[in-house]
Design a protein that fits this description.
Elements (H helix, E strand, L loop, with lengths): L14 E6 L5 E6 L1 H7 L1 H6 L8 E3 L2 E7 L5 H10 L15 H13 L3 H13 L4 H10 L19 H15 L8 H15 L12 H26 L3 H4 L2 H24 L2 H24 L15 H16 L3 H13 L9 H17 L11
Parallel strand pairs: 1-4
Antiparallel strand pairs: 1-2, 3-4
Helix pairs in contact: 3-4, 4-5, 4-6, 7-8, 7-9, 7-14, 8-11, 8-15, 9-11, 9-12, 11-12, 13-15, 14-15
């Protein structure tokens, strides 16, 4: 059996690929016609009998390739990859998003379908930094349909998915979860405001009557729980009402009310809060007076048993990276289920949720240059 051909092996080479730049860089790379013809349409055309001229260099056929200095190394990498079996088991070949984008551009220019497919799959699978997202949006849209799958996670989400995640977030943001979930709840509240706020981008969701009705129902349930709490406290002694745990509970409700005011103001249904607050005002005054009069001492809360912190954070980081690498519509499905799960704190997908909200809201603006070829998923 013949030994496999190796790039740069002058003793078996029958083609010289001459890479040249306008700056005068000129490098000869000894290759093999069989591999170039099989894996690159560009080289297949230039080494065919139909090509009018074929230079001879060092007693071999020569194909000249001109490129920019910035892309020189990417061209060399593509030639090397032509000699590699790209079966998905060598992700370390790409050396990150920036290098993979450069290789992808050259692979498309030289008509190398195996390299293009492998590169697209790699870019689809790995997480991106925000700066890398911007680079992808700058480069990929001009690459044609072969590279379109890379943009799947950045596509605008259809209205149904947005409504679903908004309602799930709303219900969680107006619930009364254990105090350990306060950070999750605060994040949910922040993202709800972000979704409906008009800034550089149009709001992610324009609240119609159905959305407003759902918001009103959630506000009603929040006040219903608060009224029930007030009625229970009216039957308790002043000492019990003034306990630290009780005050913390009240602080939680008042923080929710403060946030609800901001949300309702953006949705232009502030009257809902005003009416509910007026109905509860007498009970609030009667119950909170002992809190105002009480003097508390702060004791350090006992630490709950926790699994190894570093291990859990590592797992959560992995979950987030995997989710953010999925198409945006699939992200919405997962996050909707997460927000509706009673075990929402395990894992904490807050980071993935915040990134999804940002990407979804700015998607139309960021992909505006792509025109009608990129419809919502």
């Amino acid at each position: 059996m013949d030994a496999p051909s190796r790039i740069g092996d002058r003793s078996t080479s029958d083609v010289v690929v001459r890479l040249r730049t306008q700056e005068g860089r000129d490098e000869w790379i000894y290759c093999h016609a069989g591999i170039l013809i099989e894996k690159s349409k560009y080289f297949a055309d230039r080494l065919s009998d139909n090509w009018p001229t074929c230079q001879i260099l060092d007693s071999r056929n020569c194909v000249e390739v001109y490129c920019q200095e910035l892309d020189f190394n990417h061209h060399v990498n593509v030639l090397r990859l032509l000699y590699v079996v790209l079966d998905g088991s060598f992700d370390d070949l790409w050396n990150g998003v920036k290098n993979a984008l450069g290789i992808l551009q050259v692979g498309i220019q030289l008509g190398c379908p195996q390299i293009v497919t492998a590169c697209v799959k790699y870019l689809e699978a790995i997480p991106w930094e925000e700066s890398e997202e911007e680079e992808i949006l700058r480069i990929v849209p001009d690459m044609g349909s072969e590279a379109e799958p890379i943009l799947a996670r950045l596509q605008p989400v259809n209205l149904s998915a947005i409504r679903g995640i908004f309602i799930s977030t709303l219900r969680f943001a107006m619930s009364s979860p254990p105090s350990l979930m306060n950070d999750l709840k605060s994040s949910a509240q922040e993202q709800l405001e972000y979704m409906v706020t008009e800034d550089d981008d149009t709001p992610l969701l324009i609240a119609d009557e159905d959305i407003k009705s759902e918001v009103k129902d959630c506000v009603g349930r929040l006040f219903s729980r608060f009224n029930k709490l007030l009625e229970e406290f009216l039957c308790e002694s002043a000492e019990l009402v003034g306990e630290a745990g009780t005050i913390t509970l009240f602080q939680s409700y008042f923080a929710d009310f403060s946030w609800v005011c901001q949300l309702l103001s953006k949705l232009e249904i502030m009257r809902v809060f005003v009416n509910s607050w007026v109905d509860a005002s007498d009970k609030i005054l009667t119950t909170t007076k002992p809190l105002i009069d009480s003097v508390m001492t702060s004791d350090e809360e006992s630490l709950a048993f926790k699994i190894d912190g570093e291990l859990w954070q590592s797992l959560e980081s992995t979950f987030v990276s995997i989710i953010l690498a999925l198409p945006s519509a699939n992200q919405a499905e997962i996050l909707t289920e997460w927000l509706e799960n009673e075990h929402i704190r395990y894992p904490d997908l807050t980071e993935a949720f915040e990134v999804w909200c940002y990407r979804s809201k700015v998607a139309n603006r960021r992909l505006a240059l792509l025109g009608g070829s990129h419809s919502t998923l």
